[in-house]
């Protein structure tokens, strides 16, 4: 990967991906979707979006993973359809990456699904505005697991999730600099 481009404002680093990084993310995202179809796997806990929407979200997710790797200075591991395995491994941390585009009401939240979550996993939230990605922060899954706080189904016919508000996330610099303790 090229030299990291990072601007820190409000403790939320902004990473800009280059054309090569976006292209490889697009290939990875598309492969994830086509492999799910090929293996007849249900997609995203009952998500019923169009194929085009699934491809778009999958590519955006892969770009967010690459942006986190770029920020942390670790190589991106191109993987597809590995279930709840970590998206990124950094030092001794297993990291799950969650991303969303900016919502009209600015009401983004980090989504953690009870099915498949493991104790002491790190969940990172990244705001996606390709080619720029803003790392808003992280939370340890153990701080959320088993609690009713933030549990919601958003009034949709899907399983409940924890919708963690971005304002309670820890700054990513604490993870990068290992200032957690």
From the alpha carbons, calculate the radius of gyration and give it in angstroms. Answer: 16 Å
- How many β-strand runs? 9
- What profile does the largest beta sheet have? 6 strands, mixed
Strand content: 25-35%
Cross-sheet strand order for the largest sheet:
1-2-7-6-4-3
Mean pLDDT: 87
Based on CA inertia axes, which overall geometry fits? globular
Description:
With 181 residues, the chain is of the alpha+beta class. It is built from 3 helices and 9 strands; from the N terminus they run ββααβββββββα. The protein has helices at residues 19-38, 51-72, 172-176; strands at 6-9, 12-16, 88-90, 93-101, 109-112, 122-129, 132-140, 151-152, 161-165. A 6-stranded mixed β-sheet has the order 1-2-7-6-4-3. The protein has a 3-stranded antiparallel β-sheet with strand order 5-9-8, with no helix packed on it. Strand 6 and strand 7 (132-140) form a beta hairpin. Helix 1 (19-38) packs across helix 2 (51-72). The two termini are 31 Å apart. Residues 1-10 have low confidence and may be disordered.
In brief, what are we looking at here?
This protein has 181 residues and is of the alpha+beta class. It is 26% helix and 27% strand.
Please describe the structure with a list of short key phrases separated by commas or semicolons.
27% strand; three-stranded antiparallel β-sheet; six-stranded mixed β-sheet; single chain; alpha+beta; 26% helix
Describe the protein's topology.
Layout: E1 6-9, E2 12-16, H1 19-38, H2 51-72, E3 88-90, E4 93-101, E5 109-112, E6 122-129, E7 132-140, E8 151-152, E9 161-165, H3 172-176
Parallel strand pairs: 4-6
Antiparallel strand pairs: 1-2, 2-7, 3-4, 5-9, 6-7, 8-9
Helix pairs in contact: 1-2
């Amino acid at each position: 990967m090229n030299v990291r481009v990072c601007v820190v404002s409000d403790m939320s680093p902004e990473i800009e991906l280059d054309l090569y990084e976006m292209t490889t993310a697009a290939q990875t995202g598309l492969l994830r979707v086509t492999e799910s179809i090929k293996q007849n796997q249900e997609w995203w806990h009952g998500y019923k979006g169009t194929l085009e929407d699934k491809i778009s979200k999958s590519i955006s997710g892969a770009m967010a993973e690459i942006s986190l790797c770029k920020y942390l200075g670790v190589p991106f591991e191109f993987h597809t359809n590995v279930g709840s395995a970590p998206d990124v491994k950094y030092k001794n941390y297993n990291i799950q990456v969650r991303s969303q585009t900016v919502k009209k009401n600015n009401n983004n939240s980090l989504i953690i699904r009870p099915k498949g979550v493991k104790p002491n996993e790190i969940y990172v939230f990244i705001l996606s505005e390709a080619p720029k990605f803003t790392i808003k922060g992280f939370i340890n899954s153990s701080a959320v697991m088993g609690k009713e706080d933030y549990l919601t189904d958003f009034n949709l016919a899907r399983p409940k999730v924890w919708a963690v508000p971005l304002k309670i996330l820890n700054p990513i610099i604490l993870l990068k600099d290992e200032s957690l303790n």
